[in-house]
Amino acid sequence: MPKIRFQALEQSRRREHTTISESGKRSELFGKNVFNEEKMLQFLTREAFDNVKSAIFQGNKIDRKIADQVAEGMKAWALSMGATHYTHWFQPLTGATAEKHDAFFDILPNGRAMEKFGGAQLVQQEPDASSFPSGGIRNTFEARGYTAWDPTSPAFIYKTTLCIPTIFVAYTGEALDNKAPLLRALHAIDQAATGVAQYFDKNVRKVHATLGWEQEYFLIDKALVKSRIDLSTTGRTLVGSFSAKGQQLDDHYFGVIPPRVLSFMSDLEKECTQLGIPVKTRHNEVAPNQFELAPVFEEANLSVDHNLLLMDVMEEIADRHNFSVLFHEKPFAGINGSGKHNNWSLATDTGVNLLSPGTTPMKNLQFLTFFVNTIKAVDTYEELLRASIASASNDHRLGANEAPPPIISIFIGKQLNDVLDELEGVSKGKLSPEEKTELKLNVVGKIPEILLDNTDRNRTSPFAFTGNKFEMRGVGSKMNCAKPMTILNTIVAKQLTDFKKEVDALIDKKKLKKDEAVFNVLREYIKTCKRIRFEGDGYGMEWQEEARRRKLSINKNTPEALQVITSKESVALFKEMDVMNEVELTAHQDVELGAYIFHIQIEGRVLGEMVYSHIIPAAVKYQNLLLENINGLREVYGAAHKKVAEAQLNILEQIGEHIIEIKKLTDEMTDARKRANSMSMRNKKAQAYCNNVKPYFDSIREQSDALEKLIADEFWPFTKYREMLFSK
Ligand code: ADP
Ligand code: MG
């Protein structure tokens, strides 16, 4: 067996799991490393505390004097916790997080050392950001991007560094990150939803979007991952014959968690708890060595930060346990990939979930209002929502018969469909008292009861209503949730703004009562956005045809899906909602296209190297062994005695054919790459990579997998699927 594979297997076999220490109350550890309200009260002046609180809840600005006070308190707390450095923690468009650590330590003009950190350092920094993607917003020669403090997400200490969540913007104010647009979208939804929520309760002052993500991932022994250049450089296996045992038996799902994994999870959860990430559930997933982790939901901005932080922490703790955590959406062909469901809702400062039916008809009308408006928003902007989850790696998942299809539709369940159907039949204009009573008591009034037993779930739907929230299921496992959350909140904000205008007009001009006006507008919406509701099987071919008839967009790959971001309608939408201007949209699209190209390019290069430097040499080596054997047999039995070496000759021949074929395909793929590289337009280049380069990956893989089956195990250069997926 090639040395690298042998050593990796030996190493992984020898690993023992560390003992599990699940002792200690989680609640006592919760938020220990976070500069939360409790610490703020302790370390800040009353004035500074009040200012930070009003920045969080009213979005007020914090002036320099106050910032100095906050910095002073934050520093005192951080030093008391043993922190030595601080960093602005931000989310460049790469999709990951970035940080640049500075020591608190500084030298004064008189040569004495002291711990320095003031308002200036807290509020704004100018990292040398010239290497981050900016989509052309910032030319590298004027690398002026700066990070600015986001007081709505609390600072935290990770290891010995105080991390301050920040936005990252160009000198000219344009967003160079995923957080700045998200914050603007959350502001837009707050304004729009508060206006509508006040129809039902005058006391509502603020509405915030809530997000509860469910993170799926694979955990594979570190040495095994390292032994494969595809997995360690691209995050997925580019070749690999499927193992005899896969997930057919469904014996992994919700099964007993292996001890070594449990020990990792236990450490992870402890760290998360200290960082204030409210992790709650953990279980095995469908595929072998696949797991899921989910927290209690939180305000969307904080929840996004927590998911990004979690992914960083996971990598680090996995490493300590000699695991590699794979966030790629499709690390292994033939078994399920990983996603990150985004559960989303809207909550008021009065403690009400606006997507949760209440106990009175009026509360249910509020529920219906937000429910129908969300459906309408998704109907109007389905293509944008699809674009928000587009990436090279997620392309392997969307539509691959395990995750939702790339067509956005909404599942609400039979009972709610019936309610919407009944509402559709309500007469236009003023309602008779009888009609009103009937509606309120028998339609709207019955909603909470029907939801209780509305347990049927459709796992194939990309956007499903699950009792008191919508669940967006197409989000990729390694994605920054800020992207889909920015789009979703923007489109619902726009929809609620339009809704309010229409209702107000009916009240003012047609003199309708508020509830009548609401019913009237909702009824129109229900009528006009029917095409987005789909209860059937999203995996079937029939749905694709039906979706086409319904004129829903079907964008099967990332370059196609990204086009809509800069359409006239999108530009107008984002401008009206004050979320992104045209320059930013173009830049974000450009960065996404660039990322797509790089991904496919790297995969192509790695695959080429695997074929030429590993697969063909292994095949040739085995051919030589066969030749030696054939020649030996012929010497003993005589060349005329054909039958003796017949099987070996046949294998030799098959290998020969696959070598010819794999070489031919690899050369063609390399040529296609060269042609794609010569294109200067991002769009064209991404399409060329998608349509002319990528298709070779599968056919090369087929050849490689056939060779893997033919060649002696001891010669195969890559750790096999069964070795990676069933090691405990
Ligand atoms: P599953 O989809 O695996 O069956 P659930 O439907 O119970 O699981 O979803 C659980 C997730 O939904 C959790 O991450 C939880 O935080 C989130 N969630 C529950 N209520 C809300 C809400 N009001 N807003 C946002 N997320 C929520
Ligand atoms: Mg879910």
TrEMBL record:
UniProt GO BP: glutamine biosynthetic process
SUPFAM superfamilies named among the record's database cross-references: Glutamine synthetase/guanido kinase
Cross-referenced SMART domains: Gln-synt_C (SM01230)
Stretches assigned to the GS beta-grasp domain: 84-173
GS catalytic domain ranges (all copies): 178-615
Gene3D superfamilies: 1.20.120.1560, Glutamine synthetase/guanido kinase, catalytic domain
Coiled coil (UniProt feature): 655-682
One Gene Ontology term of the molecular function aspect: glutamine synthetase activity
A Pfam cross-reference name: GSIII_N
Domain of life: Bacteria
Keywords: Coiled coil
PANTHER family with a match to the protein in the record: GLUTAMINE SYNTHETASE, TYPE-3 GLUTAMINE SYNTHETASE
Family: Belongs to the glutamine synthetase family.
The protein's name: Glutamine synthetase type III
